[in-house]
Structure formats: C-alpha cells, structure tokens
Write a structure and sequence with these properties.
The chain is of the alpha+beta class. 21% of the residues are buried.
Length: 174
C-alpha cells in the first residue's frame, strides 16, 4: 500500500458532491425507515451506495409483518414490502405500503464521477483496495492503484492528516 494525495480542484469538488449526495441518501433513507418504524440498511458497493431496506428491531412483533419480506442474513436482515400477488384481504394494505415505500425510496448515489475524477474506475478498485478521505480540500488516499494526479506522500503525512480528520469528525459529532 502506498499513500498519496490529490489537490486537483475537479477531484475535490467530485468528492464533496459525492459526500453531499450520500448525506442526502442517508437522510431520506432514515425518514423512510422511521416512517415504517425501523432503521435503514445501506448497500455500500465499489461503484455506488444505495438504500438496501429496513431493519425492524422486533420483526416478529410487527402488526403487519406478513406484508414485509422476512429479514435474513443473506439480505443483511433488511426488509422491504413483499412482491407478488397478495391475499385479497391484504391487497389494499400492501398496495398502500408499496406506494409510500416507493414514493419515499431514495436514489442511489454513484461513485463513478468521483472515481473518474481521481483517475480510476470501479473495475480497478475490485482488485486493489482504495481508502480515501477529504481533509482541508485535499484528498488523501491509501491504495496500490497508480493514479495520474496523485502525489505520493510519506506515511507520517498521511497519518497526521488522518488523525486531524478523525479529530474533526469527532468534534462535529459531539
């Protein structure tokens, strides 16, 4: 693994845009999950971040749990409205749940513009880990990828920036 940084304004703007879109996704997904009495679960893939479903704390005690997909380890314990043809008695309730769920469903956020701005694509990230963060309008990276706009730095500079970034994150959260 090597450490590098990118100061290219286009890449920094792409990173900020991605983070803003991701924050909006999280906010919308939280509203959706809260509306139905659960917590949001996200799918965090190489090329995108998306809403995966709702985690109900006590799924078996839900009044209408028969209208939701049963949470399983294979789907990260996420539930979504059932699909297919419901029983006649459940048709209206399921249609109402589906309509509200689909209306509130947030759009997925693509990482493609960010990856393109730093000089790579998601295919390269499948086989080479990529860890990055933005601090003081500089993108710091820890990766094996060779990126055209990246300037290689010492681990001590990376560690100092990471420590400052983590400290700033903790102060904002407090």
């Amino acid at each position: 693994m090597s450490y590098s940084k990118i100061t290219n304004n286009n890449a920094v703007q792409a990173f900020k845009s991605f983070e803003t879109s991701k924050a909006e996704l999280i906010e919308q997904a939280t509203k959706l999950a809260t509306h139905f009495g659960g917590k949001p679960i996200f799918s965090n893939r190489v090329e995108r971040v998306s809403f995966a479903g709702i985690n109900f704390h006590n799924f078996n005690q839900l009044e209408n749990n028969h209208l939701w997909m049963k949470p399983k380890a294979a789907n990260c314990f996420a539930s979504s409205p059932k699909y297919g043809k419901p029983k006649a008695a459940d048709r209206e309730a399921l249609e109402a749940i589906k309509a509200k769920y689909n209306e509130m469903m947030p759009e997925e956020v693509s990482r493609e513009p960010l990856l393109k701005a730093i000089g790579t694509d998601w295919g390269n990230c499948l086989f080479a880990p990529l860890s990055l963060f933005l601090h003081d309008d500089v993108i710091y990276l820890n990766t094996r990828l060779s990126l055209a706009d990246a300037t290689e730095i010492f681990g001590s500079e990376y560690d100092a920036a990471k420590s400052a970034y983590d400290t700033a994150k903790i102060e904002v959260a407090a």
